[in-house]
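Sorry, any thoughts here?
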Amino acid sequence: MAALPQPTVEVDAFSALMLCFTADLAAIVGEEPPVGITEAGFIDLVERAMYAFAGMHGDHVQRIGEELDYAVGDLTEALTLTGADRRDRLARARTHLRYAIENTR
């Protein structure tokens, strides 16, 4: 019996970032991961995670906050870009988010 074709779901890069990082960011701010989050809502979540480190001392903690700040900038710019420019900004944001989250563990 032949296998039935599987439906394909295309996820854009911004949505993929949200799927990948929302749960970790929500944990940083002490919340349940939001359902149906928008791009603007995701940026807000990253900002809240950044503010969670504000006022803490230490180079390590300061670096996490800086990485999240860079990610906010890249994500915000990506909202208005298309094509390769958008992919570039999202790739940068992914790097900053990954570094920040890995360093919270």
